[in-house]
């Protein structure tokens, strides 16, 4: 686990953090779809015009790209001043803090993309298992998780 993460006291770590999290998030999105609560942002994305949620995916993906550029610039600044005797330690610390904050922002924006992508998949009836099978189908046999589902050959579509 990352130094930035923790398991709440009294809870056991899930066997797969990303798997457990994506399953819980997809379940929450599906439940909000079924609940049909007009006050729910998720429900509005699922029931409104498709363009609204697609614009959010594009917007959030753009924010990930910008955040990644910021993180790269911050990391480059840290590397450029490493070992430089003329740069005060407090400035090096400030640069390191800035790089850390840039990575935190990138993680935040990436989570927005994943959330909105899962809303799109729910809207079109594509579950996590089917999505996982698509990802597995893109891996070589040695890379795929043992027992991982694959997309049936007649449903494999690469490009248009």
TrEMBL record:
It is an enzyme of class 3 (hydrolase). The keyword Cell inner membrane does not apply. Its main location: cytoplasm. It is found in: Cytoplasm. One of its GO terms (molecular function) is ATP binding. Keywords: Amino-acid biosynthesis, ATP-binding, Cytoplasm, Histidine biosynthesis, Hydrolase, Nucleotide-binding. Pathway: Amino-acid biosynthesis; L-histidine biosynthesis; L-histidine from 5-phospho-alpha-D-ribose 1-diphosphate: step 2/9. GO terms for biological process: L-histidine biosynthetic process. Belongs to the PRA-PH family. HAMAP family: HisE. This is Phosphoribosyl-ATP pyrophosphatase. It comes from Berryella intestinalis. The lineage of its organism: Bacteria, Bacillati, Actinomycetota, Coriobacteriia, Eggerthellales.
């Amino acid at each position: 686990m990352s130094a930035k993460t923790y398991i709440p006291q009294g809870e056991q770590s899930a066997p797969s953090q990303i798997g457990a999290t994506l399953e819980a998030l997809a379940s929450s999105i599906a439940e909000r779809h079924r609940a049909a609560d007009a006050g729910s942002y998720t429900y509005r994305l699922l029931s409104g015009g498709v363009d609204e949620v697609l614009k959010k995916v594009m917007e959030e993906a753009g924010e990930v790209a910008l955040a990644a550029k910021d993180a790269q610039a911050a990391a480059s600044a840290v590397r450029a001043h490493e070992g430089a005797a003329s740069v005060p330690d407090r400035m090096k610390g400030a640069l390191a803090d800035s790089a850390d904050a840039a990575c935190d922002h990138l993680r935040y924006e990436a989570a927005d993309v994943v959330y909105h992508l899962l809303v799109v998949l729910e809207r079109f009836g594509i579950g996590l298992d089917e999505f996982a099978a698509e990802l597995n189908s893109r891996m070589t046999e040695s890379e795929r998780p043992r027992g991982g589902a694959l997309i049936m050959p007649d449903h494999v579509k690469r490009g248009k």
